[in-house]
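Tip: read the tokens left to right.
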């Protein structure tokens, strides 16, 4: 059975086995963030219009959300529309916003049934009113859900996030609530749009480009990066499993040394 034929009620035995293998093999990242890229090129390679790529991308979103929930990922953040994407042709922007509204209308109930909490990061004020309303309704309906948080980065960029954090911190300094010397990593982290989410353990980028494109700039300091040439509309759960295997093979040191090295005696130590 291919991914197209599978529904949430019919997870194949083979797929369940693959997930159990990964769960037993190593750590499942607590937070996965995804730069969903390549929709346009996917469509072009099929002689189709760009929006056809975005539509096919929604099917990947559904499959990846479902697989992450089943695997026990606690936070999934999807870069769905960047600050810079406002510079795209008007027709493409409005088609993307329509797609978002349609997806929220058709998928929110399923998210809720699966105990998934929907949130968003980004400048919501720039979103068209219908889009904003649907988003806020879905966020409020699912607010108490505990299985997984699906965070949509919409009208988001890392620099926007840092600017709004700096602005809010400056206001607190101006109002005498905070001294400049008290501004630490934690204070900045707590003023970012992602204050409630741990930093991403794994950032996946599809379509082969090796860049962050203004996504989670502060939060990605120690994220593991995984880049695949696969275009987003072709990135389904089996591609996710490859990314997870690769993540499990990494040694995360966070700027420190790995435990065996730490125990080694340095020949330079003078006794
Ligand atoms: C990047 O591909 C993709 C986007 C800018 C939009 C992503 C949106 C979706 C997958 C659909 C809606 C999302 C949700 C959450 C329902 P690109 O257009 O930059 O592709 P290209 O680099 O090949 O041109």
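Filled-in amino acids:
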């Amino acid at each position: 059975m291919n991914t197209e034929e599978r529904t949430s009620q019919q997870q194949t035995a083979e797929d369940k086995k693959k997930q159990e293998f990964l769960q037993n093999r190593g750590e499942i990242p607590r937070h996965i963030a995804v730069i969903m890229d390549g929709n346009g090129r996917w469509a072009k390679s099929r002689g189709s219009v760009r929006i056809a790529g975005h539509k096919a991308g929604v099917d990947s979103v559904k499959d990846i959300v479902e697989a992450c929930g089943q695997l026990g990922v606690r936070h999934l953040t999807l870069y769905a529309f960047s600050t810079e994407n406002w510079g795209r042709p008007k027709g493409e922007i409005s088609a993307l916003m329509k797609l978002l509204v349609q997806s929220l209308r058709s998928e929110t109930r399923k998210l809720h049934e699966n105990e998934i909490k929907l949130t968003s990061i980004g400048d919501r004020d720039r979103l068209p009113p219908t889009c904003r309303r649907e988003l806020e309704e879905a966020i409020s309906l699912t607010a108490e859900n505990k299985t997984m948080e699906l965070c949509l980065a919409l009208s988001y960029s890392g620099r926007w996030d840092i600017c709004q954090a700096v602005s809010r911190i400056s206001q607190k300094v101006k109002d005498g609530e905070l001294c400049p010397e008290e501004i630490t990593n934690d204070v900045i982290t707590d003023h970012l749009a992602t204050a409630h989410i741990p930093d991403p353990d794994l950032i996946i980028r599809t379509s082969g480009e090796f860049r962050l494109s203004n996504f989670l700039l502060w939060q990605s300091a120690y994220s593991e990066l995984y880049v695949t040439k696969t275009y987003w509309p072709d990135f389904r759960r089996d591609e996710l499993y490859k990314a997870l295997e690769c993540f499990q093979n990494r040694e995360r040191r966070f700027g420190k040394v790995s435990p065996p090295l730490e125990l080694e005696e340095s020949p330079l130590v003078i006794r």
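Confidence is low (pLDDT under 50) at residues 1-5. The domain at 27-157+199-248 is CATH 3.40.1180.10 (Undecaprenyl pyrophosphate synthetase).
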